[in-house]
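Sequence in, structure out.
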Amino acid sequence: MGRLYRSLILVDYLDDHVVKFPNETAWQLRKKLAAKPWAGTRPNELKDGEEWEPFEEHAVYECVQVQGPRLGTVAIVKVRIEVPADLPPSDDPQERAKHASGMRLGFYTANEIEMLKRLTAAGCSATPTLLAVKVGMQTKSDLGRRGWVTPPWMPGGYIVYILMVKIPAQPLDYTFFWRMTQNERNEVRIAFRKAFLSVNGPLLSSHIDQLAGN
């Protein structure tokens, strides 16, 4: 893995940005709820059998529909932006472009999108409903300016917007989980089992039938 503790260089330029999705709705990013860097791997750091993983920045925004049938609706947008591995980034856009993935999404970003699609299709009540996904290549228009400062966007790098229904929720990380009471942890396990089976139940049943010779 690359350096885990990095300063954020792009997500702050997204404040108030309007995103147009393939479902013909547009949403303005209003309130930033969270932001963090995501450490990828550099080619010279790869071990045998390990795949290259792009460096990213992640952000979660509360957003408002500004175009579409339900104007004013509040939702959540997760943003995944590919960023240069080295800090500070080069001032030369062509130099930054040399390290772009060419629209090959990172494993965890692609996996999150796929899982949300499957959970939504299965009607899972334990996760937010996926409304739309926009995957594109970064351009200057994706990221605003701060005064006279132009963001160090990454030509050829990807930017992903994941639009979801806003629901009351608490991020469930390791520390938060183990601070729960035993009963609360059991409720989480039951909810996880229900969500897992709602997506994988048919596949598991098929495997069980094959093992049983049915």
